[in-house]
Structures are given as C-alpha cells and as structure tokens.
Amino acid sequence: MKRINIGLLGLGTVGTGTAKILIENKGIIKKRIGAELHLKKAADIDLDKKREVVFEKGTLTKDALEVINDDDIDIIVEMIGGKTIAKEFIIKALENKKHVVTANKALLAEAGEELFQLAYKNNVDIAYEASVGGAIPIIKSLRESLAGNNITAVNGILNGTCNYILSKIANENMEFKEALAKAQANGYAEADPTFDIEGFDTAHKTAIIASLAYGTKINFDDLYIEGITGITQTDIKYAKEFGYLIKLLAITKDLGDSIEARIHPTMISTDNILAKIDGSLNAASIFGDAVGEVMLSGYGAGMMPTASAVAGDIIDIARNIIFNTKARIPIAGFMQDQIKSKPVIPIEDVLTNYYFRFFLVDKPNVLSQVAGILGSYGISIKSVHQKERNPQEGVPVIIITYLVKEAEVKKALKEIFALDIVLEKPVFIRIEDEDTAS
Amino acid sequence: MKRINIGLLGLGTVGTGTAKILIENKGIIKKRIGAELHLKKAADIDLDKKREVVFEKGTLTKDALEVINDDDIDIIVEMIGGKTIAKEFIIKALENKKHVVTANKALLAEAGEELFQLAYKNNVDIAYEASVGGAIPIIKSLRESLAGNNITAVNGILNGTCNYILSKIANENMEFKEALAKAQANGYAEADPTFDIEGFDTAHKTAIIASLAYGTKINFDDLYIEGITGITQTDIKYAKEFGYLIKLLAITKDLGDSIEARIHPTMISTDNILAKIDGSLNAASIFGDAVGEVMLSGYGAGMMPTASAVAGDIIDIARNIIFNTKARIPIAGFMQDQIKSKPVIPIEDVLTNYYFRFFLVDKPNVLSQVAGILGSYGISIKSVHQKERNPQEGVPVIIITYLVKEAEVKKALKEIFALDIVLEKPVFIRIEDEDTAS
Question: Which residues of A177-200 are buried (b: 16+ CB within 10 A; e: fewer)?
C-alpha cells in the first residue's frame, strides 16, 4: 500500500489537532483513500509541552527545516500562523516542490497571490480550506461543487468571537463590554481581542472568499472594515422591533466590472437563515445563478473542527499524489490567465438599506425637519418609529430607509446632526435585505 | 484548449436545467477548469416541446443510443429517472467506458451496488451529488471534505414536499390535507404525492447517505420508513409547548457493528439548527468525531438548483479527464475491499426519546395507572402535561420520556390502550434530542 509522508510545522492547537487526526484516524482514512497517510515529522519550538496525542518515536523535532528539507515528505502542513516565519517556511516548502496545506488566513489575504504564483511555478498545490470558516467546506464548494454557477454573492458570519458576543448582547441583555468579558472568560475571545472584534479576522477571510468566488485579485486595503465595538443593547432592541437582528457580516457581491467586499455590523431579517447562526458558530450563504442560495454552517474555530478541514485538504492532495496528478484545481479557483483585477467599490458607493437612530427634541415638526433633509438627498423612508414621549430629555426616533448610496447617507446625517433639535450624533447601521441580497 | 464532449439523456426539468448551465455558463466554467465542456448530444423522446434553452444545431436526437454510442462523448448525464430504461442506458454507457452523472436516487438506492461494480470494472466514474439534497454538497462533503472524520451520524431533511407541508401545518394552522392541497397547487407536490409523503423518496436518499457515511452496503428493505400523513395540528401544537417541532427526518447513526437508518416524523428542539429549515428547503447535519456538527442547507429540488449539482459532478469528472485520472475517489466513498455489510437495526431495537399523547377519562388516578404501566416496561418519564379539565369527554395527556427501546414502548402502549380509562389509541412520536443526536 502506498504511503504518503506528511510534515507538520507548528504544534499549537490546530497543529496538534491535525496530528491527532493523522495518528488516531489513520485507519478510517486508509479505508477511504487506499493509502497510508504517515505523519513523518512534526516541528515545534516547544517539545516539552504536554499534548493530547502520542507521536511515533522520532517524529518530533525543533528544526522546521529538517521537515521542509526531508526528501520523503510530500505534503507540508503549516500550522505556525503569522506573516513572517510561516511565510518563509511556506516559500521554502514550495521551492522544494512540496504541496502545502495551511490555515493562515492573514498570510493568504495579504500575500496569497505571491505564494500561489510560486506554487504554480513549482507545479504544486496550496490548500487552505481551514483558513475560512474552520470546519465548513466553503472553499471546496466555491471551487468545485458550485463551479457551474456564476457566483453572484457570498455573505458570511466568519468570526466566532464576534458572533458569540453579539448573541450574548441580543439573547442575554448584556452590553458589549460584559459580553466581551464573558467571551474572554469562556475562551471565545483572546486577551487582546482587537483583531477579532474590529473585524480584521473576518476581513482576511472575506478577501479569500471574494477572490475565489469572483476570480479576481483583491487588494486587502480596499476592503471596508468596521468592527462591533459600537453595538449597543439599544440598537439591538430596536432592530428586533423591526424584525431584524445584528450580525457582523462579511458581504461580497459581483457587480460585473467591480465587486463589493465589506465587513460591518449588519441588520438582517430574523427570517434570514444566517439569523439562526448563534453563538460561536460560523456560516456562509453562497448565491449562484443556478443554485439559488446554499448555506453552510459549523464551527469556525477550535482544535478538532479546524483540524478536520486541514485533514480534508491533506486527503485531497494525497488523492492527487496517488493518481499522479498535480494542480488539478486552480489554487484560486480560476485559471491563472482568467483572473481579472476587479476594483472593490468604496463604501461611499455602496447601495443598501439603512437603519438610523436619532435622538431628537420632543416637539412637533422635528421629524419633518429630519425627513426633509433625508428627502433632499434622495433618501426614501420605509418606516419610522417613535414610541416614547419625553418633552424634557428628548426621544429616540428610528428610521428604516429604502436603497440609497452611502455617500448620500453620510451627507444627510452630517446636515441633520447640525440641527438644534438633534441631541446626539445619529447612529446608522446598514441593513442587508432581500432586495440587496443578490 | 481541450474540449470534453458530454451526452445528455432526458430533457425533463433537471435535464433541461443541466443543458442550460452547459450552454449558458460555458464561459465561466471554461475560466474555472481551463477546458471547454461541450454538450454534443442530447436525447429525448419529445423534441417538439418548447424548452428554455437554445441548443446548438445537431445536438438533439430521439435516439439515446446515438448518444451512448458516440465515441467522442466522455460523459453521459442520465436525467431520465426511473429504474428500467435509465438503468439499461447507464449500464450501456458504463460498458462503453463512459463516465456517468445521474440524480437517480431510486435506482442508486436499490441497484447502486451493481452499477458501482460495473463502473469499477470499466474504470469509470459514477457521480451522483444531485441524487441527495439537490443543490447541497452533501455527497462531496462526506467523500472529501470530511474524509478525515469517523462519521458518527447524519440527520437530514431530504424531501421538500414533506417539509413544505409540515411547515404549513405548523406556521399557518392548516391540517395535513389542506397543506397537501396547497403544496400541490404551488407545485411542491405531485398529483400522486404518495412517494414523497410516505417517506420513500427520503428513504432512497437515506440509503445513499448511510452507505457513504459508514462504508456499508445497505439493504433498502431494512430501512424503517414512516410518512407524515398521520401528523396533526394537535401534536404540532403540543410539541411546540415542549419546545419541539416536527420534521420528517432521515436519521442515520453508526453504532459500530450495526447502523441505524430510519425515516419518520420526528420531534426536534426548536433550538436544533434543522428546526430552522423551513418550507421546501432541504438540509443535512453531519456529525463527525473531529468536525463536531456541520449543517448544509439549500434547495433540494427544482430545475436549476439540481442542475447546479449535476454540473458540479460533470466538472469534477472533466477535471479528472483533463488530468488523465480516473476513479480518483471511490464511488461509494470507501475503497471497495473496505466496504462492510453492517445490518440496519430493526426499529424495535432503536433507543430514543418519545412523545406520547393519551386521551384519558378525567378522573383521579388515571395518570398513575398509565405511569405504572410505563414504569413496568422501564420507561422513565421526563415530563407530563395535562392542562385542560373535562370530566365529561376526557382529556389529552402528554408524556415525554427518557431514552427507551421502541419494543418496550409498543408493548406498554398496547397494554395502556387496553385500559378502560383510555378513550383513543395512544399517539407516539419519536424525539431526536441532544442525548440521542450522535
């Protein structure tokens, strides 16, 4: 029976999970692929740490280059993370004509193009299912199952930390800070949560998805990124009254010659299937001209779910090796000469629906002043909500709009904020409705 | 550029949809695979029918054998359906060493083994993603993405007609017959709906899933199949009070030396992600030892969604042809010599939770009699519900049980029904709870 040797770089959480699958599920994998996957070498700087897996004698090393330069190893699994040493090792592995499996979304989002080119040059594969949505087969679906479709949009909940926090705010009446503390206490958020809650992690995944879905190069700096730190109980409560809830959504759309790719807190209908994705779960809704909508959900992080996706990639490459095939599927989902540079439109040009929350003096005619300014910028009102009365302190007024360009919204809100009757800076949250979905 | 010729048999709904994708999405497919997919011939007995697609001159024929015997054609797409002529054509195509793509679940569930063997013998592929869950990549996920997992359970909502009817009963206070009439009026149910509402369609898909997930041969006659015709407003209403709703669920589990594979109306918690799958949507929850739970949803039927899955299969095979590879992935998900015959346990041996609805005389002590009999069969009660009082006509009493074997349930209910205080035949519905899920 054929034996395929694998080298693993990094024995952190997901690296250890991957080792666990390769060692403990060797039997079931052999039954499925007809070959033996053998974890020949695994490198980590800390070999004294206790890990939940029993390695074969001689597997462990502190020297990553010993793994990368091993002639018997066909597949290098990079589980180090980060953009410096991980990148060097991947480059070295590709130059050694080894296939690479990675979950390194930051690196791929920012240097994917360079690495993919190097892989093509050396006629080897880079597989990265685990970089987006953990266990969920998003990349495989885009590159393979849905390859007969023109993909028109992909919307996703791609960060478990944010989804956990927003679920807590919505379901357990917490404010942001309390929910964040809870997420940290339960291991769903890092001590420094900036990378997650400010939307950068989601943005890396969004860049990868948009490239794959639309066959384009994404300039990561062109993405619009807004985190969830400004989300309050108040807005979540009002959202609910209008039949919406708030998710940190990655929104991507193919507009033909350009694309939309933005990450921000978004109101979606409680009927939207993504509204059902609670807690630390991730999900992606993929829209295609034939398929309509397909929604995939599962754990977006965690030792074994992420390792499951890494193992799926290793198995894919192993099956290519068994059948003497290389680069069977273009790494970025499209043939190299077909990848077009499509600009990401600036957020000001995005056309969507909006939720506004104003805090106004409670007097007759104030609403007409606000509505007048909105109207002068072509902003049509879908519904208005003003429940409470409070002549002393002012009242909140909620407005939901029809489709309008963000540039107009910003100008209108600026003009409205300048009015004497407006007591606080207006809040606005973008809505992703059926008429904007695809 | 390489050109891969495709032959299509049957221009019904999905066949026409497939032609539409091959013709209208030829450009996007070429960009993704670097080759041209060319629909060389398409056969149907009725060529006069108006179809929403413009065929190249010379494509259409009434003679299926002209397609199957065309030496230039590499892939035969069987879209005829049924178990007689479709089977003959598939056999002929395999013997001609052509790859086959089909959505024919009835044929695969009952004669899959025979066809797969023939495909192996001729070193060609049979692809059948569209046979289960329409557009949803269930088969690809089981054979590829999750191949590093021991799959422990797969539960699915696999029939849009049933899900539509059950959603109507639950959400719009209809009774079964009214909901069925609505489904028929809206094109979600056939004039003769037996095949769908009695669970046979779901059962065919269940057999395919269980074979793939657990690497076993399934004897279709061993599946337990119960349809939805007995579901009433009353039970749906009570289910809701206990936090459950009712779905026609395909339940499969790997028990080690045997498997569970059963199709019946099932109560699931409203928190279960499958509870969110409304209307004609399909979904599958796949449980694996690494991945935890992955849930995939989408349209389980319809022209273009099903054709999307067929196109995905064609593209997979085309990529093999481009790279001169055959049978890269075992058709049934496991190497042939690793497929074990595992018996499906009889429904009487299934261990699960139950919902009982009794209609009892409203007198003191009647509950203790019922509970006494349940207890004598080892059936532990989780909760009891008796809201109404009605000394004249009797009252409904709802009981939810802990895990118990179905054989004991049937014996207990028989004994209870014989009591004078029991006015109607007891109703029971199986519950799929977290403690039974995987």
Answer: eebbebbbeeebbeeebebbbbbb
